[in-house]
Amino acid sequence: MMRFLINRVSGAVLLALAVCAPLHAQTIKIGFISTFSGPGAAQGDQLDRGVKLYMKLHGNELPPGVSVEIIRRDDTGAVPDAAKRVAQELIVRDKVQFLTGVVWTPNAAAIAPLSTEAKVPFISMNASGALIMAKAPYMARMSFTLWQSAYPLGHWAAKHYKRAYTAVSDYAPGHEAEEGFIRGFKEGGGEVVGTVRIPLANPDYIPYMQRIKDAKPEALFAFNPAGKAATAMMKAYGDLGLAKAGIKYIGTGDITTDEELQNMGDEALGVTTVHHYSAAAERPANKAFVARYQKEFGADQNPGFMVVDAWDTMDAIFTAIREQNGKVDPERTMELLKKYSSNNSPRGTVSIDPATREVINPEYLREVRRVNGRLANVEIESISQAIKDPLKELTQPK
């Protein structure tokens, strides 16, 4: 009889546990939109690698009973309609609690209104257009804006060169990079002798480089959407002999991305950029990060800035989940994101400006040099350890 009672009690306990367990379990769904096909797939792969590496190393660092599900969707490139469609599916069908990813600014601009209407926090891993945040209260940015690098680079360039030419890709980030550099350069006393905006799709850089060479500036400021576009533009610069003509190649970090640098050849040597990350940085957190990355993806692989931006975005999301013990609320999530800060990022200390929801980045002056037989973006000077978006700083009411 006693054994029967014990068995009944044990069974009841087990049944109670089985019933209660699902009530305490919580799966947080993260809609991850990136470019997994088409010409921009290399950039999308960088974001994906950052997400995969973070999940492998930190995916279990959540409250008991809480888990995360990453739902990946392909926007196929700079295609706003496709991005809007997959974001809507993630919100309505999959009922995600977060949206993230996004290589392209036009895509982020298309997603932002959906995020606002549904009150689903949207954290940009890469899209850098400064104006997309203005009417998107449920959006935050963990990547960068082009003004953060282009504007201080303009000030630096004015101390070394008197005449500059700008060449940027013809879409919002390119326009903003151009505007930021020109403002900084002119404030420093420099003269802009010419500007050109290059089509984003299938660009032929040779005619533009010839036009720049003929103008005989001392420096060429450039921006392009990284990856293969950066290599093609670099090759055109080298093939037409702009360096031999005394034209210094400078720009945002997009023109010498770490993952693509080895494909650029000696033409890249001496190219100077301002950016928030370099795989060659000697910071202990970065050296550990690069080692983990190379263990996962190959000893000859370097993480580009998109990998790091995706890594930091996941850390911000996980921080918000932990702070809410897995019971995420969009209003509380946005308040937590506004307070996010980390001094363990591979880029240095990174945080979000609570007033604008924009990332506050360190910025470094970098030069491409050969280190141990390989090209590297060597950080030669810290421009600042905490740069807010200069465009908003310069235009906000006094």
The gist of it:
This protein is α/β, with parallel strands linked by helices. The chain contains twelve helices and 14 strands. The longest helix is centred in the N-terminal third of the chain and has 23 residues, at 2-24.
Low-confidence stretches: 1-23
Compute the number of structural domains. Answer: 2
Q: Kindly estimate the percentage of residues that lie in beta strands according to DSSP.
A: 15-25%
Rg over alpha carbons = 23 Å
Name of the CATH superfamily of the largest domain = Response regulator
Structural class based on helices, strands and sheet pairing: alpha/beta
Helix content: 40-55%
Largest sheet: 9 strands, mixed
Task: Indicate the mean pLDDT.
Answer: 92
Report the CATH C-level class of the largest domain. Alpha Beta
Q: How many β-strands, per DSSP?
A: 14
Order of helices and strands: HEHEHEHEEHEHEHEHEEHHHEEEEH
Any guess at the CATH architecture of the largest domain?
3-Layer(aba) Sandwich
Q: What distance separates the N and C termini?
A: 83 Å
- Please tell me what the overall shape is: globular
By CATH, the topology of the largest domain is Rossmann fold
- The total count of helices amounts to 12
List the helices and strands and how they pair.
Layout: H1 2-24, E1 26-34, H2 41-58, E2 66-74, H3 80-92, E3 98-101, H4 105-118, E4 122-124, E5 139-141, H5 146-158, E6 163-169, H6 172-187, E7 191-198, H7 206-215, E8 219-223, H8 228-239, E9 248-252, E10 272-275, H9 284-297, H10 305-323, H11 330-338, E11 341-345, E12 348-352, E13 359-371, E14 374-387, H12 390-395
Parallel strand pairs: 1-2, 1-3, 3-4, 4-5, 6-7, 6-8, 8-9, 9-10
Antiparallel strand pairs: 10-13, 11-12, 12-13, 13-14
Helix pairs in contact: 2-10, 3-4, 5-6, 10-11
